[in-house]
Amino acid sequence: MSSTTTDTSITSSGDPHPIDDGSGGSGIIDRAYRLLRSVPTGLLWLIVVVWTIPTLGLFVNSFRTRDAQRSTGWWKGLNPFDWTTANYDQIINARQSIGNSLLNSMAIAIPATIIPIAIAAFAAYGFAWIDFRGRKPLFIATVSLLAVPLQVALIPLLQMFNNGASLTLPGLDKTITLIPDFDLAGTTTAVWLTHTGFAMPFAIFLLHNYISALPKDVFEAARIDGAAHFTIFWRLVLPLSIPVLAAFAIFQFLWTWNDFLIANTMIGANVDEQPTTILIANLAGDFGRNENILPAAAFVQAFVPIIVFFSLQRYFVRGLLAGSVKG
Amino acid sequence: MATVTLDKVNKIYENGFHAIHDLDLEIADKEFLVLVGPSGCGKSTALRMIAGLETISGGEMKIGEKVVNDVEPKDRDIAMVFQNYALYPHMTVYDNIGFALKLAKVPKDEIDRRVRQASKILELDANLDRKPGQLSGGQRQRVAMGRAIVRQPAAFLMDEPLSNLDAKLRVQMRAEIAALQRDLAVTTVYVTHDQIEAMTMGDRVAVLKAGYLQQVDTPQNLYDKPDNVFVAAFIGSPSMNLYEATVEFDDNGGTVHLGDQNLRIGPEVLENRPALRDHGKVIVGIRPEDFEDASLFEGDTTGRELTSNVRLIEALGSELMVHFDINARTVDSGDPDAVEESDSGSNAVGRFNPRSRVKMREDVRIAVATDNMHFFDPETHLSIWS
Which residues of A250-276 are buried (b: 16+ CB within 10 A; e: fewer)? Predict the structure, then answer.
């Protein structure tokens, strides 16, 4: 496959819509696109089917009894008349309310998606288009935080949420409170605060790359038209960045919705605030006693992200910039 | 409506590059001034400094009576048209044109009136609800113009606004912009590298080279009385032919020794250029139209002829571009964009009448309008007058 794309002349890298009609053009993107177009549709469908089979198996198994799941493969249970909704019943009628846990998941995932985007968009614009002292080192420092693993911060963060943070000065018998105890232990707030913090470096990095590539002339025209930074940000940068904002929103929502580690650390045993991931783990029980409900639970859990994905994916539009400047 | 004044304006970039040297320009109210020069001469930088998009390193810039060195672009009361239009891609044509007024908090009905008026002038009425991506290049260009004129600013700044259009549309828009500027009577600074645009559109033309202002004058004066070799070669197409030569004077005019051939010049040349008497060596400049096929020439051309061998003929219908050799050293005008005029290896171009019957590789007698010749100092490259 690569043999046709090795001879590169990256002429169309700046082209706002390299994927036009598949004809003409000599850039690497055009070639890759033509190559992909030449793949027979049948082959693509085959790939789709292969990728979908595990999900299909999970779906079928979610309607089978524990015994059936354990004794035979899912392909033996394709007859819908043999199916049972017992697994779903077990989840929905569990002592710990699934509805409540879904709401908790929302209470984590929604702020953990919106807040990083809001902050990172401002930061990315600042890094990209406002000339201030120390801009470059600060940006590099921010992006290097990507290298900090989440796990090392879990316990310090938990302690901070539990007790606040304070510093006892050596020599003096005095303790300074740096961060007061907001009593966040065991709350969804602690979870989305953590998600927000850890999303920031990547969000700023991703948005910065997109925003800094927006055409400079457009901003200069806006400055002459009388726009200050905030107006430029609000009226030009945000509308033009919708594709990247949607892309990040999808990633971040899926990641926070499906998160188990942070939620389990920060919320722990507080049943009222547990998100769906923890609820499902609890329902499955120790040593997989109720492992039969896991396929059904997976579908309950996946339902919301699927809706989010399909409602946002249409914003992945290409060529929103077409017509602004002559390409 | 205002004057724009640049007084010893300098631009030095942080990396030490000195882009503009002591630029003095006085642009009168309602004047159309064209800044022209080869690539990298600083013309766009100068324009961006007027716009406020580049800081001014030294000197003083005034719009009207107000010094604007440290004034934000939005407070300078100017409108700018960019080379690649810089339209707002997510807004309709209507919103693009009205954006500045909206930011200025002009009442809605007033915005509507002015946008519709501008779109009528520019024949954009039918496209007001479209987005820039749905427009052709010429229409986008008009939207960019509309965005400028709707503001009713003190000055228009245009940065090569036609360079992205195809040749035919460029000629049409050239005339339209010039006419529009005359109708609106707004001070305009127009940057281009195309000397034809400069000559046809400007009330006055300022020629820049490597950050230095070379000459500011009306297009015809630039053509007829260039101050130096660079302006002489830059203005006019094909370029002026420039050679090293010597001059001698006698009672009845003088003689130019051009290589191994001699050309007589009349006494009025010396009357116009008395300082020429102090020069032996000169650079002599001959416009292509001052060469003509001697066999077509009515009147006496004795002593005002060259003989040469034709290397190449380009027939343009209305004229013939004839390339030939003159046995003299050519002079580099210092234009970085200048290409070797022809592949034929010749060093002279003449613009002959199409009735001429000259043929390639044949010897031809060429009449020279010697009284139109230009003379420059070989050391300073400045024009020799008095």
Answer: bebbbbbbebeebbbbbbeeebebbbb
